[in-house]
Amino acid sequence: MPAVAREVDRFQQFLQQQGLKLTSERTALVREIFSTHYHFEADELLFKMKEKSVKISRATVYRTLELLVKSGMVRRVHLGEDHYHYEHVSGNSHHDHLICTTCGGVIEFHDEEIERLQRAICEKKKFTPTFHNLQILGVCESCTRRGETPDAPDRVKMIQATRLRK
Amino acid sequence: MPAVAREVDRFQQFLQQQGLKLTSERTALVREIFSTHYHFEADELLFKMKEKSVKISRATVYRTLELLVKSGMVRRVHLGEDHYHYEHVSGNSHHDHLICTTCGGVIEFHDEEIERLQRAICEKKKFTPTFHNLQILGVCESCTRRGETPDAPDRVKMIQATRLRK
DNA sequence: CCCTAAACTGAGACTCAGTCTCAACTCGTC
DNA sequence: GACGAGTTGAGACTGAGTCTCAGTTTAGGG
Description:
Two copies of one chain form a homodimer.
Chain A: H1 2-17, H2 24-35, E1 39-40, H3 42-51, H4 58-71, E2 74-78, E3 84-88, E4 96-100, E5 106-109, H5 112-124, E6 128-139, H6 141-145, H7 154-162
Parallel strand pairs in A: 4-6
Antiparallel strand pairs in A: 1-3, 2-3, 4-5
Helix pairs in contact in A: 1-2, 3-4
The structure holds a DNA duplex (30 and 30 nucleotides).
C-alpha cells in the first residue's frame, strides 16, 4: 500500500523537523488513520487498535492526534453537536460539511464562491483568518425519502454500544 | 427594564404551551441571560448567579438552557475549539462568527450572499437544511496591531481563575 | 555496534462540562 | 386549600480529554 507508506513518510519528515521520533505506535496510528476514510473519533481509533490487538494507550492516541493536527495531516472538526471528530487531509484539500442529523452521514462540499465571500468579509472587518469551519445540519436525500424525522438516535446508540472503555 | 420582561413573558408562553411551569429560578436565569449581551458559557452563568447570591444549582442551569434552546430563544454555538457557548436570540436574527484566537473576542457578521449560496448547495445535493454554523478563526484587528501571535492563553487563564466549582 | 540523552509510552489518577437520580419542594388548576 | 404534575438541589456519575511519572525506546555520535 504505497499511499499509506507515503503518509507515514510525510509524518516522519515532520517529526524529524521538530526533533521528534517516529515510534511503532505512531506508525501504527498513521497507518490506521490513512487506510480508513473520512471522519473518525479519538475513541473509535483507540477501539480499532484494541480490536487489532495493537496495544496503544489512550494518552498516546491523543498525543499522536495532536501531532498530526500540528503537522497539518489531520484536521479537527466539529461534526454535529458533540465532541471532536478528526479527518485526514491527504491530497484532498479544504472542504466543508453537510451533516445529516438523522443518519449521521456527512457529505463534503467545496464552493470557491463562498470561500471568496468569506475572504471579503475578513478584509472588510480587518480580520486575518487562519481557518474556517462551515457545517450545515439537516436531513440528507435518502433520509428524506425514507420519511425520517430529524434526530434519530439509532446510530448514536450503535456507536456507543461498540465503544469500549479502559 | 421592559425588554427583559418581554423575554420572560415569551418564555412563560412557551412553557405554558408545553405544560411546563415558570419558576423563580427560571425567571432569574432568563433575566440574567437577556440582560447581558452576546455569548456566555453555562458555567459562567452558574457563577454569575452565585455572585448575586441567587442559589441555583448546576442541574437547573443546564435544564433551563435546554428549554431556552428548545424555545428558540437561545442558541447553542461552538466558538473556537472548546465546549458549548450560548447566545440569546432576541430581535437579532441569524449571524455567523469571526473568532479571534488571540483575545477570544467574537465579531458577528451576516452575509446574505453566503446564505444564498449555502441554500443553492443544499438544493444541488438534495439536502434539507435546518441550521448552519460558520466560524472563521483568526486574529482580529487590534490583536494584529499589537503584534500578537495567535493562541495567547491569558484570557483563558483569567476565565478559569474566576470560575468556581461546586 | 553500543551508549546515552532526549523523547516516548502506558497506567491510571485527574479535570471539567454536562447528565442523572431521587427525595423534598413548588406551581397552578380545580 | 389540596393535590398532582412538574421542579429543584445535592451530589453521584459519565465520558472526553489531559497530566504525571517511572520505565522504555529511539536516534545518532563515537
